[in-house]
Amino acid sequence: MIDTFRQRLRNAWAASDRIFDLVPRDRWLEQPIRLRHPILFYIGHLPAFAWNQVGRGLLDLGALHPTFDELFERGIDPVGMDGPEASIDWPGVDEVLAYRDRARARLLELVEDVAARAGRDRLAARGRILNVALEHEYMHQETLQYMFLELGPGTLERPDDLASPRFDGPVADGRIEIAGGDVVLGADFDDIEFGWDNEFPEHRVRVDGFHIDRVPVTVERWRDFVDAGGYRRPELWLDGDWRWRDRAGLEHPPRWRRADGGWRVRTLFDEHDLDDVRGWPVTVSLAEARAFCRWSGSRLPTEAELHRATYGSPTGAERRHPWGDAEAEPGVHGNFGFSNWSPSPVGSFPQGESAWGLLDTVGNLWQWTSSPFAPFPGFEAYVPSYPGYSADFFDDRHFVMLGASWATPTPLIRRSFRNWFQDRYPYAFAGFRTVRAD
Question: Which architecture does CATH list for 171-438?
């Protein structure tokens, strides 16, 4: 366990450093998204969080750096805010990097101390508290990239191994009939190495039959919605969604722009003609997805419905992954784990097909559901040093997403993992598929 966790930590830190290095250091004080802190905050936040959970939280070792431990402790969830609450006099880059390196060195030393407590502390057992730190790091590796996308093409340092985006490929369509039946949501605490509090406990939910898109809604289908005036028809939008659209001045997805009589779509490193990316899944907020569903006479799946279509089967058995028991392999079972630095055409990974025949259930983009993020029956915030990880967002403003995106690290891919965002948050790597009842 000790050597394994040390290597996992080193690997996670190397991946984070690679992502931060995409941005020139003289731009680390920029704030790509007005509702988030500057980039420099996150360079300090990742080690501060890990120290506060492992060193201060589990092992009660006190502060590593009293000022930085607190300054970088927690980011922003901008509910009803126009921006961060106050300007901050951020420390110098070299100071933050020195703090990061000191925290990392101490954490590697503390892996052995965590292992020594495994028999008497459930947060130490199986290295759960180390997984808290690791998975927090993994999640930020994705959110950093949607932040960096807002810097615009030409800003980021292109990786030497950057592959060309995939434009061509199969784009399956049609709907799949899903029979009604039981859905197993969540997991038993002792059955998996690690899960966040909102993943427990395992329980069954009954769903009726429905028909669901075989693949997520594509850029091409979304262009039809735009051309039909979807952003100018208030009857398609919930009242609050329409007011948000009106304030934001949205006439199309934020990463689209008109050019030369057509559309250009922005990605992390480039812009592409819409015709080139027409087979990609469209990236939109839940508010936009709801309007599309009204326009198309459909609806979004619930969490239980999407779970059944993804992990269930006609026999009633539940699969570990949509494709079966094999370990998730980037570029084989789907577009995740940085196998590409952008979406790819839907239907391109037939080896990731679910038992019902759905494609792209894991990878490319997270998939919205209509279900508010809420606790499962018997929920327990079991990490004393992080009681608000889930509970702070049980507010009917955040909605469940399942699956993964192209920027989701592979270790986060498991059946019980739940992601969530606010319904009008336009930055997440999220798309959707539609449902009709029998």
Answer: Alpha-Beta Complex (3.90)
Q: What is the 3-state secondary structure (H, E, C) of 228-287?
A: CCHHHCHHHCCHHHHHHHHHHCCCCCCCEEEECCEEEEECCCCEEECCCCCCCECCCCHH
Of 312, 354, 352, 322, nearest in space to 335 by CA: 352
Backbone phi and psi for residue 69, each to the nearest 5 degrees, phi listed first? -55, -40
> Is the distance from CB of 31 to CB of 37 less than 8 angstroms?
yes
The model's pTM: 0.95
What are the residue ranges in the chain where pLDDT is below 70? 75-87, 169-170, 438
Q: CA–CA separation, 289 vs 432, rounded Å?
A: 7
Query: Among 382, 411, 5, which Cα is nearest to 199's?
Result: 382
| Lateral strand order in the sheet of 419-422 | 419-422, 398-402, 366-372, 430-431
Residue ranges per structural domain of the chain: 2-149, 171-438
Query: Rounded CA gap, 39 and 30, in Å?
Result: 6
Angle at Cα 408 formed by Cα 11 and Cα 273, nearest 5°? 125
Interval 155-186: pLDDT, tens = 899 888 777 788 876 677 899 999 999 999 99
Q: Report the distance separating Cα 20 and Cα 39, nearest Å.
A: 8
| Average pLDDT score over the chain | 94
Place domain 2-149 in its CATH homologous superfamily. dinb family like domain (1.20.120.450)
